[in-house]
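Bug #77: duplicate submission created two jobs. Keeping one. Sequence:
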Amino acid sequence: MRGGADRHDEGPDDADARVGAPARSAAGLPGVGHAMAQAFERMGPRRSLRTLRLVNQDHGFDCPGCAWPEPPGERSVAEFCENGAKAVAEEATRARVTPAFFAEHSLTDLAGRSGHWLGRQGRIVEPMYRSPGATHYTPVGWDEAFRLVAAELTALASPEEAAFYTSGRTSNEAAFVYQLFVRMLGTNNLPDCSNLCHESSGTALTATIGVGKGSVTLADLEAADLVLVVGQNPGTNHPRMLSSLERVKRAGGSIVAVNPLPEAALLRFRNPQNARGLLGRGTPLADQFLQIRLGGDLALFQGLARRLLDAEDAAPGTVLDHDFIDAHSTGFDAFAEHVRTHLGDDEIAAVTGLAAAEIDELARRMLAAERVVVCWAMGLTQHAGAVATIQEVVNVLLMRGNIGRPGAGVCPVRGHSNVQGDRTMGIWERPTTAFLDALGAEFGFDPPRQHGHDVVDTIRAMRDGRVKVFLGMGGNFVAASPDSAVTEAAMRACRLTVQVSTTLNRSHAVTGEAALILPTLGRTEVDEQAGGRQQVTVEDSMGMVHASRGTLAPAGPALRSEVAIVCGLAAATLTAAPAGADSALARVDWAGLAADYRRVRGHISRVVPGFEDFEDRLGAPGGFALPHPPRDSRTFPTASGRAAFTVNDCDVPRVPPGHLLLQTMRSHDQYNTTIYGLDDRYRGVRGGRRVVFVHPEDLAERAIADGTHVDLVSVWTDGTTRRAESFRAVAFPTARGCAAAYFPETNVLVPLDSTAAGSNTPTSKSLVVRLEPTSPSPSPRRGDG
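Kept job's structure:
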C-alpha cells in the first residue's frame, strides 16, 4: 500500500472502493435499513430497541449527534435519524476496550490504525496512563490520575502554559465547572470545536445583530415563505432538518439550495416517518439549485442585494422595509452605494459560476416572499472571507426586515449537540467582561482577563513550547485540527496530554511525553452520584435548553461522569496550588458539585443570563428558550443599539492554471471525525473514503481518467505545498473548477496559517490544489483489518 508522512490512516486503503451513480433521493426504507443494521450490529436488537426509543424524548436522552432541535409537542416514537442511530450505536456498543487491549497494542500500533478501526474497538472502561518513554498505556487509579495532572499543572511556570479543549458534546453542567476550574487556575486558554467550525458565524452575527446565535425557532423556519439552504448538506449532517423542510413545502413555501455539489436529500426526501416517504416517491425539496463555485457566496448575495435595490428604484417604497431600516439599523447608505458600484454582472458570473438569469430567479423568489430564512453551515464558515460572507447574508435579510419577525431570520445550523451550549456556559477564549464579572462575584475570585488561545493559536503555542499541558474534554483534537503534520508534532511536544473520552480515536495515539485517558460516561448511560440519579442539560441550535437522562447501565464500573472528572481534577489541582493562592479557590465545594448537579445549575442560574430559575424551568415539556433580543423584541445589543449593515469586499482565492479549489466534507457514514462506516451511498461511493470528486470536464482537461489514483497537493501563498497521497478520482457533477474530498483525511492539506479573517477558523473549504498521478512505488501501510 502507498503511504507517506501525511498518511495517518484516518481512512482505509481505497484501492477497491466501488463507485456508482449518485443517489437522487435520501432516507426512505434504505435509511431505516442502514440505521437498524448498524444499531443491531453494535448494540444487538434488544438493546437497540430499548435505547433508540428514548432518543430526543422528554423523558430520555439528547442524541449525541447533531444539534438540530426537537419538535415541540408530541414527538414521534422514533425521533432520530440514520446518523443519530449510528451515533447512539457508537456510544452504546457492547464492545469494550480493556487494559488487556492496551497491553496488546502499542502506541505505534495504534498510530498506524485508521480512525474507523479505532472507533469500532468499543468503549474505554478504565483510566490509562502512558508514562514518559513507555510504549504502551497501563492502568492507573483515578486518584493517581488526578494527582499526575495536578502535579504537571502546578509545576508550570504560568497557567498560560496549559490549554483546555472542549468538544461540543459536553453538557452544560460539565462545561460550566470546566471553565470555572480553568479560570480559577488562572487562564482563558479554552479552545473548542466552535473555533474549527462556526466561529465565523458568531463573529459575523455579533458584529451585525449583537447576538452570535441564530435568530429563528423551529416554528419560524417552518412558517417561512422562502428558505435558502446555503453551504449545507442536511441529508448527511442534520437529517432531521429534512422533516422541517418538508413541512415548509407542504405549507406552500419554497426552498433554494446553494451548493457546489448536488445533494440527494435536497433533490427528494423520502420521510421515513410517513407512508409517502417509506413507500411513495417522497417530497422534492429544492425548487431551485444554484450550483455555485467555492467561495462565490458573497458575490451571490451582493448580486442579489443589487437586484433588490434595482427593484426598489423601479417601484419606490414597495421593496425595502424602510421603516425597519430607519428605526433599527445603521450603515444602509454606505452598504447600498458599495453594492451598486462594487461588482458587475461579469465579475459575479466569474466568481459564482452562475448565470445572471439564475440570480434573477432567486431575486424574484425573494421579492415574492414576506418571510425569508437563510440557513448555512460550514460551507460558508470555513473560507478566508467567511465573516464577510455571513455579514452579506445579514445585509440581504435586513433590507426587507427579515430579522425579528415571525418566520424570518438567520439560521446557522450548528454541529455537535451542545456546541452552542458550551459557549453559553463560558467555553470561550475571549470571554466578555460581563461574564467574568458575574463569575467572579459568584465564586469570590478575580478571573483572568487576558484573552486565551483558540484552536489554531493553541497548536502554535504547543509547537513553540509555550503550552506544555493539553487537556481535551471529549472530541478528537488531533484529527479535527488543520495541518495534520504540524498538529501532531505540536501535540508530541507537550509534557502531558490528557483525553476525557468514551471511545478510542487518533488523539489517544498521538500524545505528549506522558499521556492519560480518562474514560467517561456517555449520554445514553445512567449517571448515579452521591446525591442520586442525575440529569444534564444541553442547548440546541436554536437556543432551546432541555434535560437529558441516560438509562443504560454504564459500560464499566470505573467510569466517571464528565462533571465528576472535572471536579476531581479541580479539587486535586487547586488545593495543591502554591501558597498564597486566592483562598476562594479552596472554598469551592467540588465534591458537592459532583454529587448533585442541581448545585451546578444553581450557580449557572446566577451567572449566565437567561438561566434564572433554571431548575424549575427544566420541568416544562421541551425545556425553555433562551432570550434572543433581535428575535424577541427587535432590539440589537450592538454598540449602536441597532443592527449594522456592513460593507464587504469580495476576495476569492486566486487559482493558478491547472489547479482546482478543494473543499473538505463529510461522507454519509461519518459525523465529524467519527467514522461509522466506509460508504457514502448518496454520492455513490461504497467501501472506501480516499476519493476526490471532480467534474468530468476538469478531469478530461488534466488527462485524468475516472478511477485513476492521484495525489492532492495543496499550494499555499508562501510557496509551500502539502500532499495527501493516493485518492481515487471520481467523476462527479460538482461545480467546474471545484473538487471535494473527505476530512479528516484531507486536513493535512490545510495550512495552519490559512484562516478566516476575523474568526481564525481554518479555511477547509477553499484549498488551492493540483492533482498529480500517484507514484506507483508502494510502501506498507496498515489498513482497517
